[in-house]
From TrEMBL:
<dbReference type="InterPro" id="IPR013149">
    <property type="entry name" value="ADH-like_C"/>
</dbReference>
<dbReference type="InterPro" id="IPR036291">
    <property type="entry name" value="NAD(P)-bd_dom_sf"/>
</dbReference>
<dbReference type="Pfam" id="PF16884">
    <property type="entry name" value="ADH_N_2"/>
</dbReference>
<dbReference type="InterPro" id="IPR011032">
    <property type="entry name" value="GroES-like_sf"/>
</dbReference>
<feature type="domain" description="Enoyl reductase (ER)">
    <location>
        <begin position="14"/>
        <end position="329"/>
    </location>
</feature>
<dbReference type="InterPro" id="IPR041694">
    <property type="entry name" value="ADH_N_2"/>
</dbReference>
<dbReference type="InterPro" id="IPR020843">
    <property type="entry name" value="ER"/>
</dbReference>
<dbReference type="Pfam" id="PF00107">
    <property type="entry name" value="ADH_zinc_N"/>
</dbReference>
<keyword id="KW-0560">Oxidoreductase</keyword>
<protein>
    <submittedName>
        <fullName>NADP-dependent oxidoreductase</fullName>
    </submittedName>
</protein>
<dbReference type="InterPro" id="IPR045010">
    <property type="entry name" value="MDR_fam"/>
</dbReference>
Length: 331
């Protein structure tokens, strides 16, 4: 059995030495009510960075010396629980372990004949729900409006932009490489995309890309990219604050523009959220996401890293933009 634990709290950008890889030669024996799980796919996500710090947040920090946990798809390899049968696949929050015992609480069975298993960590999982709920509940998009998405080629961003197109918006994406920018227009149907790494003046680039101004901004990155968007917002704009990956590893307070004058001048709304705020909308979201997927209106990308031992590196690579779409480890 292999386990990845948090050895020390990262300072700035996490490194491999913040984690420890442990190998044990033990067999796990289950008791009545328990199941034995083998990890199939592990989700690595930017939000895990927050849990590695001990600052107060919406979820408790990871404990030092204990396994990291994230969304995992696992196979039931033995069961003494009536609700689960050997061979079932389940999705839920699990430890970064190749095998583990569970009582089945909080686990959902997933159907590998309905969608590829990894999709339940992305478009049919937490990231798809985040995209749908954030955009519809806070962004309140209307056909004909302009939507800007940062982190657009990532797991959440690529779904947000496509939903924007389905709902009849003009959609502009921001991402970090030419390849990603190309993918946004060719594969995901964005109207326009900007590479923030090769654009000197983001404010001007956005002005050109959004001739009618920005009505909805779905923000995954924060920092200077979002500052540039602020200069282009329209009256009654809605800014959906989903994440701020560009500042997650900061050791000093970022120097951002003051948002208040922009909000006042434009009667604009800026609202942060966590996906679990919208649990009551999950059935509606899943119905749309799986329906659009089946109709071919929605597509997705995955970067699948092979091997449990590479889980930590896959997590670190999120901060270097190595992923296109959802970053997933095949254990
Ligand atoms: P992504 O798939 O978008 O992966 C992260 C991407 O962020 C990278 O590929 C990279 O793309 C980009 N990035 C990394 N560093 C920077 C930087 N310094 N500046 C700008 N972009 C950067 O991850 P997710 O889709 O899983 O998550 C996206 C955001 O949504 C995160 O901020 C995450 O924390 C948040 N989130 C929030 C949830 C909520 O409930 N509020 C739930 C899930 C996610 P590039 O090459 O373009 O730089």
């Amino acid at each position: 059995i292999q386990t990845i634990i948090l050895k020390q709290r990262p300072v700035g950008k996490p490194t491999l030495s913040d984690f420890e890889f442990i190998k044990e030669d033990t067999d796990l024996n289950i008791e009545k009510g328990e199941i034995l799980l083998e990890a199939t796919y592990i989700s690595v996500d930017p939000y895990l960075r927050g849990r590695m710090s001990d600052a107060k947040s919406y979820v408790a920090p990871f404990e030092l010396g204990k396994p990291i946990t994230s969304g995992v798809i696992a196979k039931v390899i033995a069961s003494k629980n009536d609700k689960f049968t050997e061979g079932d696949f389940v999705s839920g929050m699990m430890d970064w372990k190749t095998q583990q015992i569970s009582k089945g609480e909080g686990l959902l069975k997933v159907d590998k004949d309905r969608a590829p298993l990894s999709a339940y960590l992305g478009i049919l999982g937490m990231t798809g729900l985040t995209a749908y709920c954030g955009l519809t509940q806070i962004g309140k998009p209307k056909a004909g409006e302009t939507l800007v998405v940062s982190g657009a080629a990532g797991a959440v961003g690529s779904v947000v932009g496509q939903i924007g197109k389905i709902l009849g918006l003009y959609v502009v994406g921001i991402a970090g490489t030419d390849e990603k920018v190309e993918m946004l227009t060719s594969k995901f149907g964005f109207d326009h995309a900007i590479n923030y790494n090769t654009t000197d003046d983001m404010k001007a680039a956005l002005r050109t890309a959004c001739p009618d101004g920005v009505d909805v901004y779905f923000d995954n990155v924060g920092g200077t990219i979002s500052d540039a968007v602020l200069y282009n917002i329209n009256k009654f704009a809605r800014m959906v604050i989903c994440g701020a990956i560009s500042v997650y590893n900061n050791t000093e307070a970022p120097k951002s523009v003051s948002v208040q004058p922009f909000l006042v001048k434009n009667s604009a709304l800026m609202q942060g959220f966590i996906v679990s705020n919208y649990m009551d909308k999950f059935p509606e979201a899943m119905k749309h996401l799986s329906g659009w997927l089946a109709e071919g209106k929605l597509t997705y990308s995955e970067t699948v890293v092979e091997g449990f031992a590479n889980t930590t590196q896959a997590f670190l690579d999120l901060f270097d933009g190595k992923n296109k779409g959802k970053m997933i480890v095949k254990a």
